Amino acid sequence: MSDTQLHVPENLTWSAVTGRVRDLVGEAFTTDGPANLVDGEWRAVGTPSEQTSPNDGSSLGTMLKVDAATATDAVQRAAQTHRSWAGTELDERRRKVSGALDAIEGARDDLALLLAWEIGKPWKAACSDVDRAISGVRWYVDEIEGMLSRDVEGAPAKRVPLEGPVSNIASWNYPMSVQVHAELVQLLAGNGVVAKTPTQGGWMTLTVAHALMAREGLPVTLLSGDGSELSDALIRSPEIGALAFVGGRSNGGKVAAQLADTGKRHMLEQEGLNTWGIWEFSDWDAFSEILKKGFEYAKQRCTAYPRFVVQRKLVDRFLGTYLPVLDGVRFGHPLAVEASSDGSTDDLPALDFGPLISAGKAQELDDSVEEALRHGAIPLYRGSKDHGRFLDGQDTSAYHAPVSMLAPPGASRLMHEEPFGPVDSIVVVDTEAEMLAQMNASNGALVASIATDDTQHGERLAEQVQAFKVGINKLRSRGDKDEAFGGRGESWKGAFVGGEYLVQAVTEGPPGENLFGNFPGYHRYPAT
């Protein structure tokens, strides 16, 4: 719906928020926008590229995209700084990382507002992204000494930094709680850090966070640019000690191919089709709450559940619970408030999601839905943007209402691929074997869940699901602090992360140590 009473308060506008962060970390900005951070210095180098907000199509300013030569030089400089940092005492590393966390916490609200503008996160989700980064790394500050004093078997051993800095190439959806969080732990473990900003969103948030990190003397490099231009420098450079990648299978496959002959330590988190299996189940009231939570951030996260595999005799009860949830999902402009609002963040709307990352992504989802319908899928629910909460006359091209389809055919992309948006598919089965086959349709996933009244039987079924984490009557997520994270099959390559596994992934232990993870020669899974 369009409502002339909605507006964005002046203190929450992009110009107001960026004005405040420019005042906070002015060294990180050129006249038009953020610079690139190389060897501790912010440099106005690169080709300008206009950035827009998915919220309303408005301009966010200019990203400076560096070329391959600049990236190669930056990596070589980062390697020199890495060697110095690796020799820094742990107490000093903890002090500097803690100082950066204090500074990030002081800028928390504006970092969250940047996320709301850059990638369309509603206020609550944006705050959670920043807060989880802070609280998660503080936990590592307290625990890191013990983690550096034992091997993967728990025996006493000294862990040391890698031979070179860790290169970080992450997706746009969780700049703080995934990317900045991982970088700060890598730094805490004694490694220098090289990071690339996503081209689709989050570059301003990452600029501010890295400026606060650099002020504390942390050896961080931050570059903007196209992956195709920078991949050799950030992946294959001999100076790089490890690569941390978060993204889709297509790009992940290209990265894996580039790594194949290098022998580099790597952590490649890739997509998988995360599924719910529903078998001999009756607690529909509880399931309704789970379904609603699943729509957070328009299912634009690696642990979203876009596929439901339902026992035939339960389809009517499932749909009676599921369809009202879709009808009640709230979406719209994340920063649009009633006219009477004084601009307090307490007044920001409690939305389930805002826009998708771009108008192009919204169109891609539409195309995938139409393709599935042409091949025989049955439309169960097709929401309308008319139900969204928007400013009068705003650009809504990046928004996508919930959609659900029954039985997408094998010829359609949605049968095997993660949509990364609010598009669900339902598959009906008659046997447990069918259910397991459909839950394993994407050759590996990060998470999955089974809804069943018989939890012991559910746990036995879970053993046959090719997902890293399988919940019984609950959602599974990436997790925080000491919780491990990884994937099975094609959803993950290299070392697992989370808790102690993240520190092990970015340090060297005793010779011959076999890390937990998916490697060409072996697979080793921790208890999840």
Automatic annotation (TrEMBL):
Domain Aldehyde dehydrogenase: 49-507
Keywords: Oxidoreductase
SUPFAM superfamilies, sorted: ALDH-like
Pfam families linked to this entry: Aldedh
Statement: the UniProt record of this protein carries the keyword Oxidoreductase: yes
Keyword Oxidoreductase included in the entry's annotation: yes
Alphabetical list of InterPro entries matching this protein: Ald_DH/histidinol_DH, Ald_DH_C, Ald_DH_N, Aldehyde_DH_dom, Aldehyde_DH_Superfamily
Designated name of the protein: Aldehyde dehydrogenase family protein
Originating species: Actinomycetospora chlora
